[in-house]
Amino acid sequence: MEQAFGQGNEQRVVLDTSVCIELLRKNQAVAEEVAKSRDAYSYLSTVTLFELFMRSNNLEPVEALTSEFQLLNFDEKSARKASEIALELKHKGMPIEAADLFIAATAIVNNCALATLNTKDFSRIKGLKLVRLR
Q1: Residue 73 and residue 47: Cα distance in Å, rounded?
Q2: Could you list the residue range(s) of the whole structural domain that residue 96 is in?
Q3: pTM score
Q4: How many domains does one find in the chain?
C-alpha cells in the first residue's frame, strides 16, 4: 500500500536507507519532503544505521544525520516478522535483500510506515505501508 505523504500526518514513519543517502547527498527535494512533516519522520531502523556506518570514510555526516532520529531496534519481534516475510516471498519466488526485510519488519512491528525510494522491492511486502517521497 503506497501513499503520498500529507494524508494522515499523524502516522509514524521510518526512513529507509535510500532516503538517508539522499539526505546525505543534500538532495533538496527529499530534504524538503522530510522537513515538511518532521514530527512523523523521526525514526530510523538500527539496520539503516548499520548500512550507513558501512561507509568507509567521512562518517561525520552520518553521525550528524542519525543523531536527529529516534532508533527502532531490530529485536526479537522484528526478527520473527522478517522470517515470516522472507518465507512468504521465497515461496512466491520473489526474495529481497535481508537488510530490506529487516527494515520492513522493524517498521511493521512498530506500527510505522516506511519512506523509501525503493518501492519496487518493498511493495512486495504484505502489510507494509509505504510513503512515496517523490
Answers
A1: 8
A2: 2-132
A3: 0.88
A4: 1
